[in-house]
## 1
Amino acid sequence: MPGQQLQTEALVLTRKPSADRFQTTHRLLGPAWAACSACAGSPRKTTSTSAILDLFDETDLYLETSNEGRTWFIKEARVLLRHEAIGRSYDALRLASAFVTIIARNPVHEESRAGVYRLLQQTFAAFGSTSRPDLVYLKACTVLRATQGYIPSNRNGGRD
């Protein structure tokens, strides 16, 4: 029985090797759907997807599931935009990773998913083109807090 399929654009928030070292698990966010995890490849196939996805990539994906969306597999992937410039600055990479971690760990309200998706696109572009990634992070967190109610925690429990 063929599984459910989905063709969509998505942003890559995280990338981790799965227990099967031949697959990679990605945390993805689409403009119309909540963040989900998807494995590169299929349990029935050993072939790789058409593109190797990296952090912060804007992609066009064909996803497939056979268990009502609990586990997604990337059937085909095409990178629309790769934000390579983020990796040229350690501070930009560190702060961009911190920002996507906030998004990946918290649910995005259904009515504001498209707005968060656009915010991520703008934030990735800004991280790649600025000499002050700290200001990009501060602004992105401020906009996210205003639109979603998120409050990024700091390491000292809120005490300065």
## 2
Amino acid sequence: MVLLDCAPAVRHARLVGPRGQPELSNSRMDCWAAYLRGQADALNLPVIDTTSLELDAVVDALVVYVRQIQAERAAAEQQA
């Protein structure tokens, strides 16, 4: 699992603008995002802060995590 996170103001702008879902930009969404971030931190899961990243950079970061997981699985299979 990887959490894609961003600053509340950026989330608001994305929901209201390009996503066309202004009804999701509310305090419940803010609480949900904070909860997810807390869970990711508590479980030591990777977090990609997309606040200032372009889409290509987010995809590149995800590719890094996928390749890392693939390498770990391959190593575990070789040890088994």
## 3
Amino acid sequence: MPVDRTTRLLVIGVLLASALAVGGCSTSIADLTGLGAPADAPARPKEAGTFLPVHDLPPDRDEAAMKPAEQARIEKELIDARDRQVTTAAGQNPAAK
């Protein structure tokens, strides 16, 4: 009786492993048949495996991203917010007193 149980578990394991292996290939099979992409999907590039242009930088801006006065105002607001958080945290923490 234990031999039948061992054989059954072995067969189930082999079937499960083969199902997982075939399931992993499903995307490439869909690509080969041409049925994987919807009709309105953009066409795939001819060369597969090319890297994105990482070192291509955008052109320089004509004007500064932020005016110095606006940058100073935002820095002041951030410093004020940080100080408020410190005083609020100190007021709520009984060990800080």
## 4
Amino acid sequence: MPDETFTQKDSIALIESMINKAKNRFGENGFLYLLWGWVILFCSLGQFILVSLLHYPRHYLIWTTTWLALGVQFVYIYQKRRKKHADKSCDG
């Protein structure tokens, strides 16, 4: 195995490229992270209100709204893949 030594500039360039790749990957999928973050927040607060303030016996049913978010996720991914496929076919 060859002994590779990085200069300080090489190390910084490698770290910057890794950070940029991570930013791009997050930017492409940021909608899904936001979607699920809001859904979990909504369900958690909803369950808290149903248990604490309203004393509703079936407070756990609010988590069924995650199925709606799952549907939104499937539609989003389907449209994104369809657009990606259409862009590739247009490039020829």
